[in-house]
Amino acid sequence: MINDVERILISEAQLAERIKELGAQITADYAGKEILAIGVLRGAVVFMADLTRAIKVPVAIDFMAVSSYGAGTDSSGVVRILKDLDENIEGRHLLIVEDIIDSGLTLTYLLENLKSRKPASIKLCTLLNKPERRKAEVQIDYNGFTVPDYFVVGYGLDFAEKYRNLPFIGILKPEVYK
Ligand code: PRP
Ligand code: MN
Ligand code: MG
């Protein structure tokens, strides 16, 4: 698995440091409030686990699965709800947690869908932002790292369901996905 990685883009230590900062910023911004963190399955799971533990106000968690990618590397633009929320979100402060914003199509769909359920507020926290690939504008409230247009894996991010358990963000060797 590790042999498929060309190089490490963001190390385990860099991830931990940045997540600590994001947690402190979110804690300050939500003082006196309770958060409902919504993780977007499956990529956000690893980041969600670390981020929520870095936040010091009460955090409830729920998950949604909204898939726009198949086994390939490109977004089809087709968004499907594979699993909806279990929680009622009306009047609550939502923090959507994503591993990466790429084309922005997944989040554009998801934000519209969630807004219609009348939450008190919605903010978006993404670990990675790849603006070069944007097709739909998305407002990101908390951004871990802006990354160039490499095929990145690890720390939740997959290629064909592999590499999610790497503890760092790595760049995949082109021969692996070509
Ligand atoms: C990936 C990633 C984001 C989305 C970003 O998920 O985790 O959710 O694509 O792409 P976009 O900005 O172009 O919409 P994917 O559909 O691969 O599912 P996964 O999280 O289960 O890997
Ligand atoms: Mn995802
Ligand atoms: Mg994926």
TrEMBL record:
GO terms for cellular component: cytosol. Keywords: Cytoplasm, Glycosyltransferase, Magnesium, Metal-binding, Nucleotide-binding, Purine salvage, Transferase. Its EC number is 2.4.2.8. It catalyses: GMP + diphosphate = guanine + 5-phospho-alpha-D-ribose 1-diphosphate; IMP + diphosphate = hypoxanthine + 5-phospho-alpha-D-ribose 1-diphosphate. Pathway: Purine metabolism; IMP biosynthesis via salvage pathway; IMP from hypoxanthine: step 1/1; Purine metabolism; GMP biosynthesis via salvage pathway; GMP from guanine: step 1/1. GO terms for molecular function: guanine phosphoribosyltransferase activity; hypoxanthine phosphoribosyltransferase activity; magnesium ion binding; nucleotide binding. Belongs to the purine/pyrimidine phosphoribosyltransferase family. This is Hypoxanthine phosphoribosyltransferase. It comes from Dendrosporobacter quercicolus.
